[in-house]
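Case study 2.
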Amino acid sequence: MLLNKFLPLSIIIFFSCNVAYAGTYTADFSSVTDLNSNTNGEGRTFSLLVDDVTVTVSAWSDTANNANDDPIIRYADLDKFDNQGWGIDNQDEQCNLSSSGTCASEHSADNFSRFWGPWHDFDTFLIEFSEEVTLTEAGFGWLFDENNTEISSAAISSDLANNLDGNTWDNVMADAGMLWSDSSSVDAASYDAGINAGQTVSQYWLLGAYNSVFSTNFDNSLATNYNDGVKLNSIGFNIVVPTKKDIPEPSTLLLYLFSLVILTKHRIKD
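Prediction:
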């Protein structure tokens, strides 16, 4: 009878020790107005509140001068162009206003320069969250090549995020603050790309034009280099919210089994 009396209690203890639950959210950047910090409507950052989570976006690129081999990362400008999503203008890029439509690719987050030189700058968004999340997908409003576009993404530490300026993408990848990275293809129909970061959580995520240095599981032979340009509309992310004091799941299971053993012994004695 003692076992029957205490068994429901042990089950309640076991299942009430669930560590966390996950919520899925979408940050829709199409609702953010252009920054209008200068005549070109460009700026360094913008923020959006998503269910009490603050999402802050900034722009970066390995560019300091017009050179084909310029690996140094610098701040870049965010630009919302033709309401198709957010792109990036780096220091090497200019816009040929004399010909209608030629600005579009230069204003994207891309890994090429079509009109002003042969260099390959890797434009990348740094997305900062007010708490730890897992990035799950990205949505775009414009693709330079809708049939063949890849992106790269990474989860990084706060120290690494604060030391992007003057760094290189190779050093970023090799840094101890690199938590996870990979590349993925953008779906030609939906303009969405899945990001399979597993259980990796961070407050700081990189997302940008395909950069093979970040490919971990992605087959780089499936990608075409230097033809990727995107304009970011949204990101999807999961947030883990603790519900109880964190208890490792194996320990919880052992505690439950141990309780059953003790209760069983008491029943045998009775």
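Helices lie at 2-16, 103-106, 158-161, 169-174, 249-269.
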